[in-house]
Amino acid sequence: MSIMKRLFGRTRHLDVKRSITASSLDTVVEQVDKATRWDTVVLHITSSGGITSSAYSLIKAIQTTEARVVAKVSVECASAAAMILIRCDEVIMDGDTRVLFHYPRIPASAGGVHVLVPSDAKAKPYHEELAYFTAEFKRLVRSGVLTHQEFFALNDEQDVVMTGAEYIRRGV
Questions:
Q1: pTM of the entire predicted model
Q2: 50: alpha, beta or left, given left = phi > 0 and alpha = psi -120 to 50?
């Protein structure tokens, strides 16, 4: 650890728990934005996901911060939470944690949910987020975290689920 980090840095422990909403992440995004290059941000993640646009604001904050961002994950990291996870600099995860990837869902007119995939006409208003998801899924294929088969499954509106041990083994 550098002398500057020891003198000026601080560790910020932030919770990303339960359902991800704008209000649940406001403080987290603010703290990530305030972090300096000497700081370490530890995101404690246990979440089944939530609102994609809210997660996307935290993802953008993680991408622009100079701080080191560490994800400490337990129990579950699904959907929007998994998209936050993959942007962290380091991942510490229980082996039996459930990690789930999929494209965003929106409420369907007949009830239930509608999966937004890039080829979907209903996806137009969500273009920026879907472009991000697609780019990240492709990056995960290149890095070995997802297989080509899993990438195609995502585009066929399927979920990809793995354990934390499998996620780490694949080379995060």
A1: 0.86
A2: left
